[in-house]
Specification:
The protein has helices spanning 2-18, 38-47, 49-94, 98-114, 117-186, 191-226, 250-260, 262-279, 289-352, 358-392; strands at residues 34-36, 234-236. The chain has 10 helices and 2 strands; from the N terminus they run H-E-H-H-H-H-H-E-H-H-H-H. It has a single domain, classed as Outer membrane efflux proteins (OEP) (Up-down Bundle). It is an all-alpha fold.
Amino acid sequence: MKKRSILCLAVTIATLMVTPLAAYADTKSELAPINVSLADANEMMLKGVQGQLLELGKMGDKIVITSASEGLREIRDAQQSINQMNQAALQLSQTGYTASAAAITALADEYRSQISGASKTDTERLKKYAQSILEPNDKARHNALSLKSTEMYYTLKSAEEGLATVRESYDLAQTIYNQTQKKYSLGTVSKVDLLKAELDLAEAKDKLTSTENSVKQARMGFNMLFGYELMQPVNLTDSIAVPTLPSITLDDAIAKALENRNEIREAEYALDAAERAFSSYTAYPSTSAKYLQAKAKYLGSKSSCEMVPATVEQDIRTQYDNMHQLYDALQTSAKSVANAKETLRLTQLQYNSGLVTYNVVQQVRMLYESSVLSEESARLSYALAVEKFNMSIDVGTNTAGI
């Protein structure tokens, strides 16, 4: 009985040792693939943590408006109390209770100093400003989220396209190797050419494996960001859209950005607040410490605010030039791919006919692979540049601070 138990244990251990590890793989890798469009990805983003943060930001803006409204209500209530106190003091004074009237008047004056006209004006301006940026801030948050979603979606799509290109290049290397092996058997190429073909095929295989691993990692990052299972296979149904180059002129783009961007709204409010804060110190002697400190703070704020329009203009100019350069690069890349593909076809025919050496056909294969990868990268960069540019001449992707 004991020998039988030992034999069973030995068989079990042997079975475990020869069973492929893939048999114990996480069942999550067996999930059925799902189709995901760019719109689906955006929706998933809004349903996840990023969407919750977006809503919290909007709630924060609304809270400022509510707080300002409550502050104004308190100021109105306090003003009513002061009026009542003044009326009471007047009645007491008329009836001969001058001491009591003086005490109530002093209390009313102290109360009035706590809710000065400046604080009421500041609160009213804050409320008006917060109301004016509520929708632009919400749009900027959606823009930022949409841009991030599009970038992640297109980046993974581009990586998958790159994998297909590297796989095609590997298949070409395999074909060229088979041709070289046949030529060697016929004595039309040297052993050196065959060895080179073997090495190049091995390197192509290594590059394919490395690219496959990179795409797997990119898919996991994509799934984590959009709230899918980590190993969920996804089929990205939307290709990288190549948008038409915006026809807007640079001057019009700058003017539109200066009118719409949230940074401009924030700077205008900050400069107004700095001027109002400094005005409360104008009664001090111009040589006093308080006046000088207030003036220095005001000038610092004024300088920062006045730089914002120039910063926005610089951003638009940079994006505009970059977008046009990427558009030109994309056109050039497309032509390079067409030329490289035809060159590869002709070179393979020449190699089969013995008109060119192995080194030539290998160089042409690598040139074709490089040109296709460059075109895919240019397409991704251009598509994202246009997306970002269109947002930058509107409210942008940054919220205005309060």
